[in-house]
Structure formats: C-alpha cells, structure tokens
From TrEMBL:
GHMP kinase C-terminal domain location: 291-370
Protein name in the entry: Galactokinase
Taxonomy, superkingdom: Bacteria
Protein family membership: Belongs to the GHMP kinase family. GalK subfamily.
Catalytic activity: alpha-D-galactose + ATP = alpha-D-galactose 1-phosphate + ADP + H(+)
Biological role stated in the UniProt entry: Catalyzes the transfer of the gamma-phosphate of ATP to D-galactose to form alpha-D-galactose-1-phosphate (Gal-1-P).
Entry's Gene Ontology molecular function annotations: ATP binding; galactokinase activity; magnesium ion binding
GO CC, alphabetical: cytosol
Organism this protein belongs to: Butyrivibrio hungatei
SUPFAM superfamilies: GHMP Kinase, C-terminal domain, Ribosomal protein S5 domain 2-like
Main localisation: cytoplasm
List of residues binding substrate: E38, H39, T40, D41, Y230
EC number: 2.7.1.6
Length: 393
C-alpha cells in the first residue's frame, strides 16, 4: 500500500534539491520482518520473512553526464553527496549512507552491467534504520530496482536480491545472508516467504491471522548490531560446519536433522561453538515445523515456536540482550499474545509479536510500561502489514 504523502514528499524533495526535471520517476521498496528462522540464512537453513508496507521511497532520473548525486530526506544534515561515476565506486567513510547505493552500482558493474551515464536520486524511508527491519536491504533493492528501470538492465527480482547481498558483503563489510534482500525483492502482499537458503527454492505461504495482528516493537537501543559480533557468530558456525564435514556429507548446518546433530555434537569440543551450531540446527527445524503448523491452522503452536526461537537466540546464540529479552518476556505474560520473539540480527532492534486484536491495547500499554521501568527509555510499537516487493509508483 503506497503512502501517497511519502511519494509526494520524496518527489517534492527531488525538485527542491535538484530542480525541476520532467523525467523523474518515483519508486518504492519494502522493509521486512522475519517471523521465524533467525541466523539460519548463512547456515543453509530456512527462513520465513515477509515484506512490509513500510519501506524506502525513491525518486530518480538519469543524467546526460557521468555525475551521480544522492540525497536522503532522513539524513538532511548529510546533505547532497555528489561524485563522478569513475571514482565513486570505492567504499569510503566520507560517503556515509551513500555507500549502500554505491555498493549496488559497483555490484552491477561486477556483473558486467556498466552505467552509461549518471543519475540523481532522493530517498525517504518510513522504516526505522538499524532496527532489524532491514532498511539497508530495502535501500539496496530500491537502488537495484531503479538502476534496472533507468538503464534497462536484464535482471530478475531474485538477481536484485543477490546483487544487494553481494554489495552488502563485499562493499559494506557485513557478511549478511540472503534473507533480507530476498524478502524485500520477492515480497508478496499478505504472504510470508518460506525460503530454503541452501538453494533459494521458496514458496509463498498466505498469512491469514483472523482476529490477530503482527506487532513490531522497537527497543530503540542505540547502536548495536555491530558487524563484528554478527561476523563472529558466522565464523563460529563455519568452523563448526567444517569440523562436522570431516565425518558427515553436509553442505550446511541446515542439512542436519536434530537427531544427526545430537549424535555428532561431541565433535564440537568448544562448548560455545557447539551452542551456536545447536541454534542453527534447531532453529532451522523449528522454522520448517512453523510453516507446517501454520498451514494446518495451528497458530498457537506457531506462537510456541516463536518463543522457543527467542529462547534459543537468548541462551545459545547469545544475540538478544536485556532490551530484546524484556520486550519478549513481558509479551509472553500477556493474555492474547500468541507469540513473540526478537527479529533480525539482534543485539537491539525489534521484536515481532502476533497479538489478538482485543489484546493489542493492553499489550502495548503493559509491555511498554514495564520496558520503560526496567530499561529507562521507551519502546515504540507498530502494527505492520504484509506488503509487496519493489515497484514504480
Ligand atoms: P537495518 O538494515 O536493520 O535497518 P543496518 O545497520 O543494516 O540496519 O542498516 C541501516 C543503515 O542503512 C543506515 O545506517 C543507513 O546508512 C542506511 N539507510 C537505510 N535507510 C536509509 C535512508 N532512508 N536514508 C539514509 N540511509 C539509510
Ligand atoms: Mg541491515
């Protein structure tokens, strides 16, 4: 659902910053929330995210020369960033947030798709940044979508996801898996995406929450998902995999059943590494079960699995922290909360909860008050809707 005010604001801003341009077009790419399957996407496991109706709006037009210009309404102070295409394609501190779109241009060029001219771009997001709702993937996919439209590049939406991930990994230095960009690029209204990250096979699963809604709660914790902590988890899983591969014919931790893992976990003699691998294996199996019970209409079991997911991320994977734990644990106490868990990379960011309509007010009030009491600042609650992938608007 396109927010006409956001669309108008991004187009107005384009005109204000760059002047009138009759070729300007407006675009949108969603954010995403992951319902279950966390830290499994770089372990060859399953994930179950959905695109949201909030995301990043863009306005862009091609230029006749080789200049590129970027402006974000969300980062007014940063101002307009201007560069020549030839020298812009290296990551730099000076480029700030613009490293994301530059990384996407760079990744297109790596695939042999060179820009024959520059462009002007303005973006404006209505998704909180750095909160686990993937504003970065939203920005990457939006940029790729704009490049496809402006330069006629022959790429599918799935390619846009892979290009976005490649740029985030190799230009922006975060070794994220494919989930975020895939969920953003392949989103479908009212459907979550059951994705096997081992081979990118996927199916859409309709989310029909009769009498309940998806609520995202933001811890508002200031900077947290440090790439180093994320990357450290990832290397520990890779090490566990290489040890297990000496005995087992597997390509990823997602290939292991719980029984196989339990029978072989003794090979992982470092207890911390064993816990990380355990999460990857169990979380993958939980995600497979969650999609099955959802199809069977057993939403209560889906909620239990969300809780187990959070507990595993708290106790074994160690990526929650007191803010996320408080939001989830307070939510579990509220009657009418079907399930609640952290979503995204962790260390702060957001929880996702499924809450019955009649319980939503009490949920926000009680969880909000108890969070403030314990943490000392407020959480923010959003009722979110499942939206579609990127589009020209
Ligand atoms: P998340 O993807 O969970 O929101 P990240 O830390 O991965 O968090 O990405 C957030 C970064 O993405 C921001 O710090 C900023 O550099 C960039 N970004 C995302 N949306 C915008 C926007 N609307 N304007 C400027 N930068 C943005
Ligand atoms: Mg991100």
């Amino acid at each position: 659902m396109i927010d006409q005010e956001m669309k108008k604001a991004v187009l107005d801003s384009f005109e204000k910053v760059y002047g009138k341009n009759e070729n300007v077009k407006a675009y949108f790419a969603p954010g995403r929330v992951n319902l279950i399957g966390e830290h499994t996407d770089y372990n060859g496991g399953h994930v179950f995210p959905c695109a949201l109706t909030i995301g990043t709006y863009g306005a862009a037009a091609k230029r006749n020369d080789k200049k590129v210009r970027f402006y974000s309404v969300n980062q007014e102070k940063f101002g307009v960033y201007e560069a020549n295409l030839e020298d812009a394609l290296n990551p730099s501190e000076a480029a700030g947030w613009v490293n994301y779109p530059l990384g996407v241009i760079w990744a297109f060029e790596k695939r042999g798709m060179k820009l024959d001219a520059g462009f002007d771009m303005v973006i404006y997001g209505n998704i909180p940044n750095g909160s686990g709702l993937s504003s970065s993937a939203s920005l990457e996919v939006l940029t790729g979508f704009i490049l496809r439209d402006l330069y006629g590049f022959d790429v599918t939406n799935q390619d846009l996801a892979l290009i976005g991930q490649y740029s985030e990994n190799n230009f922006n230095g975060c070794n994220c898996g494919i989930m975020d960009q895939f969920a953003v690029a392949m989103g479908k209204e009212n459907n979550a995406i059951f994705l096997d990250t081992a081979d990118l096979s996927f199916e859409y699963a309709p989310i029909k929450l009769d009498g309940a809604k998806i609520i995202v709660a933001n811890t508002n914790k200031k900077h947290k998902l440090t790439d180093s902590q994320y990357n450290a988890r990832r290397s520990m899983c890779e090490e566990a995999l290489s040890i297990l591969q000496k005995k087992l014919d597997i390509k990823g931790l997602g290939d292991l059943s719980i029984e196989e893992f339990e029978a072989n976990k003794g090979l992982l003699t470092d207890p911390d590494m064993q816990k990380k691998a355990k999460h990857a294996v169990y979380e993958n199996q939980r995600t497979i079960e969650a999609v099955k019970v959802l199809k069977d209409g057993d939403i209560a079991r889906f909620g239990e699995l969300m809780r187990q997911s959070h507990e595993s991320l708290r106790d074994d994977y160690d990526v929650t922290g007191v803010e996320l734990d408080t939001l989830a644990e307070e939510a579990w106490k509220i009657p009418g909360v079907i399930g609640s868990r952290m979503t995204g990379g962790g260390f702060g960011g957001c929880t996702v909860s499924i809450v019955k309509d009649e319980a939503i007010e009490n949920f926000k009030k009680t969880v909000g008050e108890n969070y403030l009491k314990k943490i000392g600042y407020e959480a923010t609650f959003y009722t979110v809707e499942i939206g579609a992938g990127p589009e020209v608007i």
